[in-house]
Amino acid sequence: MKQTRMLAATAAVLALALSGCGTSSGDGGDGAASGSEEQGGFTAPDVPMADALGDNEGSLKVLAWPGYAEDGSTDPAVDWVTPFEEETGCQVEVKYFGTSDEAVNLMKSGQYDVVSASGDASLRLVAGGDVAPVNTDLIDNYADVWPFLKDRAWNSVDGQMYGVPHGYGANLLMYNTDDVTPAPTSWSAVFDDASAYSGKVTAYDSPIYIADAALYLMKTEPDLGIEDPYALDEDQLAAAVDLLKQQREHVGEYWSDYLKEIQSFKTGDSVVGTTWQVIVNLAQGEKAPVEAILPEEGATGWSDTWMVSSKTEHPNCAYAWMNHIISPEANAAVAEWFGEAPANATACDLTSKGFCDSYHAGDEAYAEQIHYWTTPIEQCLDGRTDVTCTTYQDWTRAWTEIKG
């Protein structure tokens, strides 16, 4: 596959991204609240929004996940930064980050103009006044973004967009087709039925993985009252922790480096566990006997958003970048290089054959089964006001306890 060759070429760089993509390694609270009416009660700071554009300022500082702002230095054939510079006159300086917490802290410095923020960082940036609302009328390519990615809880507040959607993906269940029979249909394969594969179960190494257990309980234990896997009160968190402690007895390896997960499935050290579509593609390209599914309970996942700093001194270049990065050409290139579904519906016309089908790009029914990563906070994201929900600090402590 075209994307397999490209991703293999940049494995060392992407390992940094995939070790932290969409997750927060710090306290996760940051005073952030939830993002829209469906998440309850968050009022964004009063930050002005651009109402018109002027001449480009000539420079732009980009803060990005590795693989999101390629200029040909990793692979001469992979470059969507240089065309942007040539078209706009905005010279780009890129800094990569490895975790959402790092991105949030760097944006607070005011030194960067735009950032690619995952769902657990985006609303913290809004709540901190570090990013500005985005006038999508000034971004021509916004019209071609999949409608189901617009005005969502992780990228807007009360109907006001705070960025442009970039790409998205699901956390899937991968299994060895030789060892795991019949083919699983549920996350029970790594939870209630994990003993059948004891020592060969693998799970994502991050506190945010608690949401995967919460999602499973939300579907299988309705009496717990879980409505949102990122909105857990103390009792609900305790139930998820208990489930993960039970799973721990059967986990052979927690992974954060996707290359190690591929190797584990190739050697048979792992036979079932959570994964990403890009890992599936790479593993199959290396002849590992694996398949992956979106289980019947749905899945957690990520949706990334390009946001503009509230302190930017280069607003015109920033808007030019946001328009460029979701253009069909750039969005297609990023999606294939990084391994995710593009946000621009017309980008699929420019990807390699079968790519968008592989990533379920534009499949709204599929996308609606994904519970996108969001930072747990005290204000319950499911709208409850009669209880206090647990925070990412609580989840981090719980994750340490789970792993022992």
Task: Characterize the structure shown.
Strands 1, 2, 3, 6, 12, 13 and 14 form a 7-stranded mixed beta sheet that branches. A 5-stranded mixed beta sheet has the order 9-8-10-7-11, covered by helices on one side. The two termini are 40 Å apart. It is built from 14 helices and 14 strands. Helices cover 32% and strands 16% of the residues. The radius of gyration is 20 Å and the shape is globular. The chain has helices at 2-9, 11-18, 81-88, 100-108, 119-127, 210-220, 234-248, 258-267, 277-285, 315-325, 328-338, 355-358, 364-367, 392-403, and strands spanning 59-64, 91-96, 114-117, 156-157, 160-161, 164-170, 172-176, 201-204, 251-255, 272-275, 290-293, 299-308, 341-342, 370-372. The protein has 2 domains: 2-168 and 303-363, 3-Layer(aba) Sandwich (D-Maltodextrin-Binding Protein, domain 2), CATH 3.40.190; 170-300 and 376-403, Periplasmic binding protein-like II (D-Maltodextrin-Binding Protein, domain 2, 3-Layer(aba) Sandwich). The relative contact order is 0.21.
